[in-house]
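User: For documentation purposes, I need each entry recorded in a consistent format: the amino acid sequence on its own, followed directly by the corresponding structure tokens. There are two entries in this batch. Please keep commentary to a minimum and don't merge the entries.

Assistant: Recorded as requested. Entry 1:
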Amino acid sequence: MKRKSSNFWSVFGMPVAIALVGALGLFAALLGDGWWDALAWAGLGLPALYSLRGLAR
């Protein structure tokens, strides 16, 4: 019997990556000032941009 290849990562790969970027942004926002703020802005801004891009379609 031939085993079917899993398409788990092809379906959930991008949402998992967006969630990790958002979690990294939240973590950076809690850690401190300076470049942590820039990392927090990027980490929380990218998921927002991706969701707005999805709504615009």
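Entry 2:
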Amino acid sequence: MSQTSSDDAAWLRRYRPAQNPAARLVCLPYAGGSAPYFRPVALALDPAVDVVAVQYPGRQDRRQETPISDMNELADRVAEILERQTELPLTLFGHSMGAVLAFEVTRRLEAGGHGPVHVFVSGRRAPSTHRDETIHTRDDQGIIDELRATDGTAAAILNDEEMMRAALPALRADYLATESYRCAPGVAIDAPITALTGDRDPKTTLDECRAWAGHTLGGFELQVYSGGHFFLADNGPEINGMLDRHFAEGRVRERV
């Protein structure tokens, strides 16, 4: 991989720098989400794992930048940046919009010969399943109503007019990127996929989640947790434990 650039720091956030890392986990946020959402994951995992959270343009300290409203363009940018990182066994974890992005980034990394060893997709139906969603066309209040329905945003933020006004352009761009995305049923990656879902998630049925099995040549596992679309918040210790086991088993295989 090539040398890192100064642009990488804007995209990649490390909340607990790893000493002599043995593996890397890249976390990709949901629509309207930001890198700090994955800070607890970084603090919970083995220090030998380099945990990287992606910060998309158009939010928080990148608010002055134009959000990217096309999934393929966003995947191109993220893959390009990951290609520049020091080479380590790579795992991707994406939630909701981030799950689709993880899949598309993997396609690009595999084409370049640096594919991940595993992909975790959370809170999102398979790429080839389609729902006719048009949240990005709603007015501002309509988008806020959607956030309330999915319970992913604290009421204090939803009721803060100034904060929501600043966040809405990125939210609208993220919804457009996700809702305009299309993928054929036969498109598959080599990396194994583990799909995580909440048993009451309105955004995906179990059958839609199982359909991820058709998008990998490397094996598939489905894990169902109690909760809605943001079941990660209620199941953090269990999911962090699963990730810890994944990396521990990976290091054992490398030593054999």
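Summary note for entry 2:
Residues 252-256 have pLDDT under 50 and may be disordered.
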